Amino acid sequence: MSIPVAYLAVVLIWSTTPLTIAWSCETIDPVLAGWLRMGIAAVLGLGLLGILRIRLPLNFQAQLTYAYASLGVFGAMCCTYIASRYVPSGLISIIFGLAPILSAIFGMGLLNEPALKTYRWIASVLAFLGLGIIFTDDVALGRESLPGVFLLLLAVFLFSLSGVLVKRASAQVHPLAHTVGALLWSLPGFGITWWLMGAAPLVIDPSSRAFWSVLYLAIFGSLVGFVSYFHVLRHLPASTVALVTLITPIFALMLGHLLNAEPLTPRLWQGCLLVVGGLALFFWGHRIPLRRRLK
User: Fold this and answer.
1) How far, in Å, CA of 60 to CA of 74, rounded?
2) Per-residue DSSP letters for 16-85?
3) What distances in angstroms separate CA 254 from CA 89, 94, 129, 274, 294, one per listed residue?
4) What is the pLDDT along the chain (295 residues), one digit of tens a residue?
5) In terms of DSSP H, where are the helices of the chain?
């Protein structure tokens, strides 16, 4: 798979993932829905490994990489699934827009990447300001949404840290094997969390969109999406990979509004555009002509 195709796949899948996560939790417990998704994807992935004769490395370096990746697969996704009961699906994508900034900050400490330049700090302030505007929108978010907001902030923290740690591990593992290993590592975490939260019974209704959303997320959201993600992560900087989150919030907001009747208020748009604008400045601020002339 070429890097451009893999990158496009990540953009398309991540744009639809927030909405399908919300749908999958309509009649299924959120943690259980996430567990089913990862379990189905792991089984399909193991089958593909056998068919394609791709080895699943089990050495210490590979296991360490799987463990780092599971911070994003289990940690970030479990928090996101639970949060989907409290916040609109479009907001999930907006908050994950902070991932490039956090990835760059983690990269300074863990990958010895250069310190952030002034324009990048300004961009970070703009992005967080946009998030603050969204949080003051009583139509999109009420007090009952606060647990979901905190869970999403924890999710994006774990997601960003996971990507940087995987990059630091530098294990030469095939993207499909990497995905399957991370999925297998995530399964016990989902199971233990499900049990600690009351072990809600599984209710499957093939006629519901929750059922089909779980299948979509298992095949595309987990298997195809993570394979594509780990593929580009091997060839591009972690913060560049996270640039996907610059594109997905707009699509996710529109899908949530059109297909899930989620409110789309002026304040929500203002906050979203500030976040996206901050991210654009974060990555392309060095191209501003005025800055060059001053330099």
Assistant:
1) 20
2) HHHHHHHHHTSSS-HHHHHHHHHHHHHHHHHHHHHHHT-----SHHHHHHHHHHHIIIIIIHHHHHHHTT
3) 10, 12, 22, 17, 39
4) 677 788 888 888 988 999 999 999 988 999 999 999 999 999 999 999 999 999 999 999 999 999 999 999 999 999 999 999 888 888 888 888 888 888 888 988 888 887 888 888 898 899 889 888 888 876 667 778 888 889 999 999 999 999 899 888 877 888 889 889 999 999 999 999 999 998 888 888 888 899 999 999 999 988 888 788 778 877 777 556 666 767 788 888 888 888 988 888 888 888 888 888 888 888 777 677 655 544 5
5) 3-24, 30-52, 60-70, 77-83, 89-95, 99-110, 118-135, 146-169, 175-196, 209-216, 225-235, 238-241, 248-260, 266-284, 289-294
Residue 25's Cβ-side half-sphere holds a number of Cα atoms within 13 Å equal to: 25
Single pTM value for the model: 0.85
* φ, ψ at 80 (rounded to 5°): -65, -40
DSSP structural state of residue 96: G
Q: How far apart are CA 118 and CA 115, in angstroms?
A: 10
Match 């019974």 to its residue by tokens.
Answer: 201
**Would you say the C-alpha torsion 48, 49, 50, 51 has a positive or negative sign?**
positive
- Torsion angle of C-alpha atoms 87, 93, 98, 104, degrees rounded to 10: 140
Block residue for tokens 């996560």: 21
Which CA distances in Å does 45 have to 15, 48, 210?
22, 5, 22
User: What is the rounded distance in angstroms from the CA atom of residue 110 to the CA atom of residue 102?
Assistant: 12
